[in-house]
Predict the structure of Mos1 transposase HTH domain-containing protein.
Amino acid sequence: MDSSRSAQTAVIQFLRAEGEYASQIYRRKKEVYGEQCLARCTIFRWCQRYEAAGVYIKDFPRPGQTHVTINSATISAVDELIRQNRRITTREIAVELSISKLTAHHIIHKKLGYGKVCAQCMPKLLSENQKTARLGVRLTQQFLH
């Protein structure tokens, strides 16, 4: 049985259209869905909303920044900005591409695999030569101290 929010919303709308009261709807849903049942106050609020504005299952758009899916064009644009200026911030990338800061951060660290090294975005995976060079620098520092 589908106990998702949208499925329960459809059940509420159906029962409300049949003339059931909110308290009866809650009782019936609690019997069927058990612990996955929506809260009593949520069911009452939705019943009031359906009575006032009519019956709508679809969620209405909310104010705020539009949802941007992460696609290859956005990823390549972020990569290009980082390659042009390695000291660019996540906020500057977000403003430049009109995406959220969280989306820019996700692309940089999860999709492109970059991490901060000395305040610059660098690939996290090092080649064997780079690992050897780092080890040599570290050993030299230990020897000097």
